[in-house]
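Reading a protein record of the kind used here takes only a little practice. Think of the row as the fold of the chain written in a discrete alphabet. With that in mind, consider the following protein and its fold in token form:
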Amino acid sequence: MMWWRDLCVVIVLMMWVFGGELYTVEGRPRRILLDADVDTDDFFALLYLLKLNRSEFELEAVTISANAWTNAGHSVHQIYDILYMMDRDDITVGVGGEGGILEDGTILPNVGGYLPIIDQGVSTVGGCRYRQAIPIGRKGRLDIDTNFGIQKGFLPRGSRKYSPLRQPTAQQVMIDKISAGPITVFLIGTHTNFAIFLMNSPHLKKNVEHIYIMGGGVGSRNCSGCCPVNDNRACQDGECGDTGNLFTDYNGNPYAEFNIFGDPFAAYQVFHSGIPITLVPLDATNTIPINDEFFKAFEQRQDTFEAQYCFQSLKMARDTWFDSHFHSQTYFMWDTFTIGVAVSIMQNSNNNDGENEFAEMEYMNITVVTSNEPYGISDGSNPFFDGRKVPKFNLKKGGVHSGHVQTGLQDPFCFVKDGRGKCKDGYTAKLTGLDTVRVLVATKAKPSQENGSELDKAFYKNFLSVINLPQQTGRFNFTTEFPYYREVFYKPDFRNKELGKPVIFDMDMSAGDFLALFYLLKVPVEVLDLKVSSSGFTCFYVNQYPH
């Protein structure tokens, strides 16, 4: 019986060792990789993530979509500054790369994602087929690159700087983090980076547990550009009622949303990757605008540096907005709401129906439109097929990728006389058939459960609570914010000086007064014993430097 007792001991030890290991794995935080285009709502989402309990959610890397709303260097600096303020310089940031795609479809290492996959050649130089939809100036890249100047004026700066040749690339960061073990991916920009990763490293996709996406419009009806009800003035609807939100191209493509339109073929690869996907489209985000009640509540509650930075940025976006409908029709909690929904689902991971606190969910069969019917044509718009005996990436001849591909904002193929545009590039279509995938889709924001609350959506209160948490809060380093500032206390020594005639100079702080003050300060102290007062301000005492 000794052997039986020894066997029992071994079994108990194995259960203790392996059971403990299983418990440790289950007890580890959920690893997260965020791919973003660093628009205003992207860094709201980033800061929301950074405020979460790190024992539950661990953001390990940020990769940047370099072919959307911001340019590489500016976006990296903003991310670095935010991470430094939040004391999270441990988070890796990846962007760009000098790799390319050969004519035969071979994907070289470190493709930078500066161009959509359809236009990516062997270099980083190319056209702006889809990026034309994003304005360069107002409401576009110039404002977003600098965050209206607020970034430089508010965020402290650490030691990390953008260096094109030494900067970790997006592909390097994705490969390193995903190969390290199970991870969840959040996509809140274009999908170029992650699609290239999937196409070039398919053996690693088994480590991606889930993908959460903000983008697309399934059955949404855009309220931007709608004429007011009973408006007697001459008014012409803009993108009112469109499925998408391309405010620069609703006459040509009323179906697409910016994140998916930025690279439709990349989005198709992501959706059809076989990895479980949760989509938060315009259908849901259009139901949670930055309304006046939320804005006022946010204005009154800014208990942390990160809350202050978010509100100042939001206020600047509102104050410079192009119309008077900021609070009702045009600005929504796109990416932040997506992160909130994702985190809530992850906290209830045993529920396969995506039950969460903030959004109603529904399974749908979805695909991403990458070209327009009729398929199988060759009109010079589609580099995957035009002039090729074998389509690039061995795509199917006459298949869903073989039609006309929108060439830009003024593509004549897209225009219909006296009607809406017909191009559907980037449309997240709800269809039936073999070319669709089953996706969990957020359909609308849940209402607040508090009776009588002015914040009528459940996520409004959650966002304000999280961003104002005293834990894991930002820091403000005055010496890094103002590197040339020095505090020097100077006390002149007049012990061996015979002071001159006392004179009081009363000033109102105008520019001319300061010029006069500087002139008086040049007079030797033996001639003039100067004292200064300021009308309506605090009085102070000034003595000249001894000569």
